[in-house]
Design brief:
The chain has 355 residues and is of the alpha+beta class. It is 50% helix and 16% strand. The protein has a domain at 190-343: Butyryl-CoA Dehydrogenase, subunit A, domain 3. Strands 1-4-5-8 form a four-stranded mixed sheet, with helices on one face. A four-stranded antiparallel sheet has the order 2-3-7-6. Strands 9-10 form a two-stranded antiparallel sheet.
């Protein structure tokens, strides 16, 4: 069985689990207790630790396979922080930190945010718009040519709730001489961590966009106006073709970034994937709502759950505009030599399991 087959098989397993335990329409209808049941199943299947090495209790899966899990989460608008937890376990394992079961947040989420650690080992700084600020959180901060990974309890800091979109809380976190519960070091940079999380988020957004495309095509074939399906109208066909293009572009860009992660930091590929995913989220959400019309905006319809998630995910782990600035600076610094080769993924992927 090839690596691609393994990724597809694990992705399909995750799809079935999420369909059974986190169907968006039944959640909107008021299903009780789904979060606890879902997370218990996620941990039983080792999905939350899929990207951590086996020596640290993980599944030891490669980035492309973990990306298939992230895409499955996106295709069900999963309102639990699985991507954050998988990424936190990945870096914690590399730093020699063993994390307990349960949801783990990851900070910072903005590229410009920098936390500091004192000589006494205490954390200070601000992290803005951090998703999943409800308990344990892995905070990363640079110290020279390495990254300190520190486990904290978010409630120990000053947490200011900023919003809660589609079921996932977000907050600004302010740390003032906070002593971490555990800490370890990795020879890496904060941008390495941000790039890995951005690539996974892009894969998740690709899964959500794929659902939008499939749902819009189905609805356009069923909804009738003036005696025929609206899919027969040229304007609708044009919308669907644009949505298909946005979806495929995001999936391809995230696949390139995920393959690159198994070879190294993948800054360029992750940047390109996140820029593309953010643009596609903006366009895709607008197109889907145009196809569905007013019904898609209602609280009872599942479409709004997907589009709200997509629009919220744009800001996570470097927004598209932040990564675009990074790409622009890289292009200027390179004077064009080899720039396209790096952005387009000019590497020979090799498998490196887990952390």
């Amino acid at each position: 069985m090839t690596a691609t087959d393994v990724s597809a098989q694990i992705g399909e397993t995750a799809h079935r689990m999420f369909a059974d335990l986190a169907d968006p329409q039944s959640i909107i209808a008021g299903r009780e207790g789904w979060r606890e049941e879902l997370w218990s199943a996620i941990e039983d299947a080792l999905l939350s630790r899929a990207w951590a090495c086996e020596a640290m209790g993980g599944a030891g899966l490669g980035s492309r396979t973990v990306g298939a899990i992230a895409a499955a989460a996106g295709s069900h608008a999963l309102a639990v922080p699985l991507v954050e937890t998988m990424t936190a376990h990945h870096w914690a394992a590399r730093a020699g930190i063993e994390l307990a079961d349960g949801i783990i947040g990851l900070a910072p989420s903005r590229m410009s945010d920098r936390l500091t650690i004192s000589s006494a080992g205490k954390l200070s700084g601000n992290a803005r718009n951090v998703p999943c600020v409800d308990g344990p959180m892995l905070v990363v901060t640079e110290q020279g040519d390495r990254v300190a990974c520190a486990l904290i309890d978010a409630v120990q800091g000053d947490v200011v709730r900023v919003r809660s979109g589609a079921g996932v809380s977000r907050a600004d976190v302010r740390l003032r001489d906070l002593e971490p519960q555990a800490m370890g070091y990795v020879e890496a940079s904060q941008r390495d961590v941000m790039a890995s999380a951005a690539a996974m988020r892009a894969a998740q957004m690709g899964g959500a966009l794929r659902w939008l495309l499939d749902a819009a095509v189905t609805y356009a074939g069923e909804r009738r106006a003036f005696g025929r399906p609206i899919a027969k109208f040229q304007a609708i066909q044009h919308h669907l073709a644009r949505l298909a293009g946005e979806t495929c572009a995001t999936e391809v860009a995230s696949a390139v970034a995920l393959d690159a992660l198994d070879c190294g930091p993948a800054h360029m590929e992750a940047a390109a994937a996140k820029v593309r995913a953010d643009d596609a989220a903006t366009e895709g959400a607008a197109i889907a709502h145009q196809v569905f019309g007013a019904i898609g905006f209602t609280a009872e319809h599942v479409l709004q759950r997907y589009t709200r998630q997509l629009l919220a995910w744009r800001d996570d782990f470097g927004s598209g505009s932040e990564w675009a600035v990074f790409l622009g600076n890289a292009a200027a610094a390179s004077t064009g030599r080899g720039f396209w080769h790096h952005v387009a993924g000019g590497h020979q992927p090799r498998t490196r399991a887990g952390g």
